[in-house]
Amino acid sequence: IANDLIQAGDLEHMQKSILATEFVFEEMYSSKIAEGQCSLSDIPCYDSYIRQIQCEMCLVRGEFEHIYFIGCGSLPISAIRWSTGLGRKVVAIDYCSKAIESARALIKSCNQVDVEVEQCDGKKYLYPSNSLVICANMVDNLDEILSHINKCAVKFVITRSTEGIRSLYYPRHEIKDSGFVSRYRLIEKTDPSKGGFISTSSLYTLDP
Predict the structure, then answer these.
(1) Which end of the chain is more exposed for a tag (fewer CB within 10 A), N or C?
(2) pTM above 0.70, yes or no
(3) How far apart are alpha carbons 80 and 185 in whole angstroms?
(4) Which residues in the chain show pLDDT less than 50?
């Protein structure tokens, strides 16, 4: 099926349609939550999001001071869950002004959530070295972001992508930046088949 879609030129069109639909979906739920019409747990597939994030937390074994989430969008579930799960501040980053406005309104409506939302290009932010940086699925210019992360010598990095049949939903991203690949070691991946989520999360650490 995947090969037929690729040959017909329909796969890329389908994925772009999915992403456009997701943007509208996230804006709608972000607005509803901010206005008190529903809660985060009312979001479809919320449990799958949470399982994925919990699996990511289990990957990281080591100390770090700061947490950054790149590509938070208007519905920063991951940033919120990382903050509440670890009891730590998370800086959520996105370059889209509309998404940032919605995310800030949502965070403001949440109680006791230590998430700071910043409008910034992920490939220009000055990340402290003793940090964990998490890159959302389908974040733009991922290789450029990873190249910049390499220059900042960030301690831990988590990327999200898809593998196998799940690549029909989100396109799989192969890391091409040679600098990142040469300095960062892949430690472990999550298994989406066991958690019921789409993306595979990969933890990398800076080799000493």
Answers:
(1) C
(2) yes
(3) 27
(4) 1-2
